[in-house]
Amino acid sequence: MSDNLLSNINNPTDLRLLDEAQLPQVAQELRDFIIDIVAVKEGHLGASLGVIELTIALHYVFDTPNDLLIWDVGHQAYGHKILTGRRKNFHTNRQLGGISGFPKRSESIYDAFGVGHSSTSISAALGMAIASNLKGDFNKQHIAVIGDASIASGMAFEGLNHAGVTDANLLVILNDNAIGIDPSVGALKQYLTAVKAGKNPRQNNMIKSLNFNYSGPIDGHDIFAVIKELKRLQKTKGPKFLHIITTKGKGLQQAEENQVKYHAPGKFDAATGEIHIKSEENLPPKYQDVFGLTVLDLAKKNEKIIGITPAMPSGSSLKFMMEAFPKRAFDVGIAEQHAVTLAAGMATQGMVVFCNIYSTFLQRGYDQVIHDVALQNLPVIFCLDRAGLVGEDGATHHGVFDLAYLRCIPNMIVYAPRNEIALQNILYTAQLGLDHPIAIRYPRGRGVIADWQTQHLGTYKKIEIGKSICIKEGSKVAILSNGTIGNNVTLAIAKIKHPETIAHYDFSFVKPLDEKALHTIFTTFTTIVSIEDGAVKGGFGSAILEFASENNYTSKVTILGIPDEFIEHGTVAELQQYCKIDVKSLEIFFSSY
């Protein structure tokens, strides 16, 4: 309709043609647009609703894309995408073949830097600003928008530390809403709370002490105040820091009141905000809950058990232990490096430490895994949630590299359970005491045993380290699977015409490999197929090939898994099909033998 302003905004140039007095209307329309689409298509909601005024103000004041705007993490960039030419296809957000849920350089010239993991924006923007200076461009603006949870990460401090001794034309905007996915934690949060309450003397301002021109805090939902301050800072040279106060989920009452749930609420009623409840009756448990409930049960019986998570208590389900044993379970904020070495320190003192980190985020603490844990052979128990393909979050979040980057580390045990019972049993086994660190990887989503909690939780069996299991005997081809992808194998074998030709082995341990079983397999079968939901380069299949080479076996080995490319976003089912590790693709493949 003609009085709808957003429908006529195809890029920031269109936005800048509007009178400043019209911008609150644009803000309302932009909020409504995001709510209407996400209510049906799903995605991240609260973060983007909280920065609508800031998003409009930034594109209104600055000359994007010539001025460079970087969103930390990118959960909050939906408004940015809609204002920068992606309004008409925003409904494809996070869908196979559609636009990404995060800023992505290959998608738009307005996405100055690809993001998805936290705390990278300041370093990236500073790098751009220094490069501009070296090229003689002293007028280009470089803006990093970072949340109060992300700025507590070590990398953000590294960027601030460097920027403070440069003359870079850098503006850091702190979007302070006291929450990331879960509520922010730590001394920095307490400091920012004091600043917001006016209880911190300005002469004690830590940002000013780092040589930044500090301003704020200001109301991030007062679009006129934000624009006024941005225009002032636009003319100020050197490193600048603007502190704004926002409310995550702003404009949708339920999202404001329950910010954790409405971070990514799934489908909901756009008019009322009520989430469409999916029946969970008779469904298998989520793997994260198998972890959380098992660790809680074990912690009740073993007082040495400690739980650690870097900012993912809800996503990892460590929240169960945190509620029951608050002095023995810790959310350390977005600080994966610290989480790993904190766990190592506790392990030196005899604690049984479960360090729960998403697979994709453990990449951020890789040196600590090697140097602080494995080199000292400390029995830290790494529990890697969201291993394998995670779906709509896409390339930045798939946990497909862990098998490859962990199995090359001396002393490390690497295990991927096939189902819920195997997961609870390896957690039980690990807390009994191991001679080495262990990484236990399991996927996002649900398991396969509907009555797991009522029938199996608390009934444990010790697992023999390095032992494989023959699931099914066969006469012609040996399938070696690792982890939950083995369930696809079982289903596929059941569908083929001659299932008796296929043998199936569960190699949950990628390290140490069950070499005794492998010798038997290689002397029995001339055709061997490995399958994993990890990268084929350097992963489980590579380990099988290495074994064959070292022992001069000549059986044909085929490796199935994630190809040597970054996999984009889509449902897990769609992405498994793309990688040819879904049930149908495996059925066709097995039928060829």
> What is the spatial order of strands in the main beta sheet?
7-6-8-9-11-10-15
Gross morphology is globular
- Indicate the proportion of strand residues: 15-25%
Number of helices: 25
DSSP summary, beta strand count: 17
Describe the structure.
With 593 residues, the protein is α/β, with parallel strands linked by helices. The chain contains 25 helices and 17 strands. Helix 4 (52-61) runs parallel beside helix 10 (223-234). The chain has a 7-stranded mixed sheet with strand order 7-6-8-9-11-10-15, with helices on both faces. The chain has a 5-stranded parallel sheet with strand order 1-2-3-5-4, with helices on both faces. A 5-stranded mixed sheet has the order 12-14-13-16-17, with helices on both faces. Helix 19 (420-432) links the parallel strand 10 (413-415) and strand 11. The mean pLDDT is 94. It is globular and about 75 Å long.
What key attributes describe this structure?
isoprene biosynthesis, 1-deoxy-D-xylulose-5-phosphate synthase, alpha/beta, 593 residues, thiamine pyrophosphate, globular, transferase, thiamine biosynthesis
